[in-house]
Amino acid sequence: MHNIENVSDDIFWVGVNDRKTQRFENYLPLDKGVSYNSYLILDEKVALIDTVEIGTSENFLEKVEGVLQGRKIDYLIINHMEPDHAGAIKDIIRLYPDVTLVGNVKTFPMLDAFYDCAKEGCENNRLVVKEGDTLELGKHTLTFAMVPMVHWPESMVTYESSTGTLFSNDAFGSFGSLDGGIFDDQLNLSFYEDEMRRYYSNIVGKYGAPTQAAIKKLGGLDIKCIAPCHGPVWRTDISRVLGHYDAWSKMEPEAEGVVIVYGSMYGNTEKMANAIARQLSKEGIIDIKLYDASKTDHSYIISDIWKYQGLIIGSCSHNNAVYPKVQPLLSKLQNYGLKNRYLGIFGNMMWSGGGVKGIQAFADSLRGVEVVGEPVEVKGSPRSEDYTKLEAIATAMADKLKAARK
Ligand SMILES: Cc1cc2nc3c(=O)[nH]c(=O)nc-3n(C[C@H](O)[C@H](O)[C@H](O)COP(=O)(O)O)c2cc1C
């Protein structure tokens, strides 16, 4: 059987790649695709861990049947009810009508809400598990742990103790299809770690406290392999992966650097952004990420904001407010409660302003963000004295970053 991978002797990756869907959750670009990972455990009893998005079901079922070789599935473990994993539940029930659905007390009301269970056959054969419950398959034992709000209320993870495999659901998942390699040691990790951060920051990012609680809970387990629902299966350096989640969920920056993001109609705010970037470079800052908020999808900008300690935001004025292509970024960061960052502010205007005022209001709403330097608002084309003020923001930012060097 092709395109199946052994996670261990009797655990199989039966995931699928999706390179067709343009946007995850219909808003996050999937430039490099995504995988929906599902795992099959063959033992005295057979268990399937999660399914896939409905559009990829045919390919998935072919793999499942290929591994089963005529056997039936006894248990379908539903770690998460989001449709990109629960999408093929109906297909599994249709093919294996005796399968027992395993979920927690919050799983089944969602199943009932998504599906017409009386019609689809998912009304019966339900096993409700709670924290710490175990399910014996033979040689393999599954233990269930609830991880509410990582990133849905019913989210749970399943630990298989004989192999030390944690089926972690969306936690530790990343965007990017699996183009040949399945495991971390078979892949270029710099790409997947970036995509893992983009996934975390945009999807799980608001739920730092529940993620911290989950990390503490799972910390006592002997984890040899993390098998998430998206992206690579991690088996080489588990502590590195756990370390990423620990830092990201605390919103601790990963690296020295500055994200400059601006919105500009006629180029004046852009000129200001360039001047700030140049001065940061003169101050010895190497990682400077300069983004036009109208052009780059915000999910990439947010991922870099998660990575770096410095953030400098600029906006032209638009109807007495922040430019419409900058405002959604501010709203999302506000919703996520951005913290542990230094912030610089600049903007452009022609009559009574609005851009800088809006960014300042954003800064005031966040407790964990420290404004560095004096906000600079320029009318039209920046003059020499304006550049001096913009450079002062860059220098103040660089001073903060240098002071934080260990
Ligand atoms: C639709 C529209 C609304 C604007 N609203 C404001 C405003 O509320 N206050 C203001 O001072 N300037 C306003 N402006 C003027 C621009 O902010 C100003 O020209 C600025 O220099 C543009 O910066 P940019 O070159 O970076 O695009 C508006 C311009 C447009 C086209």
Q: What does it look like?
A:
- The strands form five sheets. The protein has a seven-stranded mixed β-sheet, with no helix packed on it.
- It has two domains: 5-249, 4-Layer Sandwich (Metallo-beta-lactamase, Chain A); 258-403, 3-Layer(aba) Sandwich (Rossmann fold).
- Helix 7 runs antiparallel to helix 8 and helix 9 (268-282) crosses helix 13.
- The chain is an alpha/beta fold and 406 residues long.
- It has helices at 57-68, 83-86, 89-95, 107-114, 117-120, 189-204, 208-218, 238-249, 268-282, 298-307, 327-336, 355-364, 384-403, and strands at residues 5-6, 11-13, 16-18, 23-24, 28-29, 34-36, 39-41, 47-49, 75-77, 100-103, 126-128, 134-136, 141-146, 156-160, 165-169, 225-228, 255-263, 288-292, 308-318, 321-322, 339-349, 368-371, 376-379.
- Bound molecules: flavin mononucleotide (FMN).
- The site of flavin mononucleotide has 19 residues, from helix 9, strand 19 and strand 21.
Cα-based radius of gyration, to the nearest Å: 24 Å
Number of helices: 13
Helix content: 25-40%
Main sheet overview: 7 strands, mixed
Low-confidence stretches: none
Strand content: 15-25%
> From the 3D coordinates, which CATH architecture of the largest domain would you assign?
4-Layer Sandwich
Averaged pLDDT, please? 96
E-strand count: 23
CATH class of the largest domain: Alpha Beta
Bound molecules: flavin mononucleotide
Shape: elongated
CATH superfamily of the largest domain: Ribonuclease Z/Hydroxyacylglutathione hydrolase-like
The helix-and-strand class reads: alpha/beta
CATH topology of the largest domain: Metallo-beta-lactamase, Chain A
Q: Number of folding domains?
A: 2
Q: Order of strands across the widest beta sheet?
A: 1-2-7-8-9-10-11
| Straight-line distance between termini | 52 Å
Protein name: MBL fold metallo-hydrolase
Family: In the N-terminal section; belongs to the zinc metallo-hydrolase group 3 family.
Pfam families: Flavodoxin_1, ODP
Cofactor: Fe cation
